[in-house]
Specification:
Layout lengths: L1 E6 L1 E3 L6 E2 L6 E2 L5 E3 L1 H17 L2 E8 L4 H10 L3 E6 L6 H19 L4 E5 L10 H9 L3 E11 L2 E8 L2 E8 L2 E5 L11 H7 L4 E3 L34 H10 L10
Parallel strand pairs: 1-6, 1-8, 6-7, 7-13, 8-12, 9-12
Antiparallel strand pairs: 2-5, 3-4, 9-10, 10-11
């Protein structure tokens, strides 16, 4: 089977995010970058399916030239082909989806239809939840997001996702598109042999073609700083009166005569 995984280069989780002066971009001066975590699981899902059913997997990203790092990392894990759609700045979800859709059509026209196109549930930076859905609609293929389990049974993909009532199970006729959620598997680490081999992998560069979408970013807004503080009431037995006063102020002590 043929599988395409779409990934995104994002700031490493846990990093402190600073904005540029105009609040329209992330200041990347001191940031490390990685593949969006949901998409790391999508890459692993593709590798497992290829190991189980045969075939090959391709990884594609739309991003800056530096995103070659994430493509080569995927190659070090066992991905056979890497495709870069180079852009100089962040594209809105509509334009991104249009460019990916066009790239999928070009790749399929040359080498045949992808049985599965995998996305992360959402990217770790912008969290738009919509690029995969837009591509599925444009390609007229069934799509399920939030996959916590993914298998292939004959000519159908079986997808399980969590819901408030338990689990939902979907059977999608191939070709199909699936949005994978972190936790569906445990991504593997590359071997030294894989890392060395990835340096020789050719990156296919396809100039993206897509008109700007209808969404416009006004500014980025970092979350409010956590201004909570800690007050030390005392040490040892000397803290007891302060603890009693605190519990009393919270109404957690019985008032005199209540027993």
């Amino acid at each position: 089977m043929r599988i395409l995984v779409c990934v995104k280069r994002v700031p490493a989780p846990g990093a402190k995010i600073n904005l540029t002066a105009d609040q329209r971009a992330v200041d990347t001066a001191f940031l490390g970058f990685t593949t969006s975590p949901h998409e790391e699981c999508a890459v692993e899902a593709a590798l497992q399916l290829v190991e189980a059913h045969g075939g090959d997997a391709t990884v594609l990203t739309l991003g800056p030239p530096e995103a070659e790092e994430q493509l080569r990392y995927a190659a070090s894990l066992g991905i056979a082909r890497c495709v870069l759609l180079p852009v100089d700045d962040e594209w809105d979800p509509q334009r991104t989806a249009s460019a990916i859709t066009a790239a999928v059509r070009d790749l399929e026209a040359a080498d045949g239809t992808f049985d599965l196109v995998l996305f992360g549930n959402e990217s770790a930076d912008s969290g738009g939840f919509q690029v995969g859905v837009r591509v599925a609609v444009a390609l007229d293929r069934p799509m399920v997001n939030g996959a916590k389990a993914l298998t292939v049974d004959g000519d159908h993909a079986v997808v399980r996702r969590e819901s408030d009532a338990g689990h939902e199970v979907y059977s999608l006729a191939l070709p199909a598109i699936v949005g994978v959620k972190e936790g569906v598997n445990l991504p593997r680490y590359p071997t030294m042999k894989g890392r060395l081999a990835s340096k020789k992998v050719a990156i296919d560069v396809l100039p993206p073609e897509a008109a700007a979408g209808g969404l416009a970013m006004v500014r980025l807004a970092p979350p409010l700083a956590d201004d909570r503080s800690v007050t030390i009431l005392g040490h040892g037995a000397d803290a007891a009166p302060a603890v009693v006063d605190l519990l009393d102020s919270l109404g957690l002590l019985d008032t005199p005569g209540s027993l």
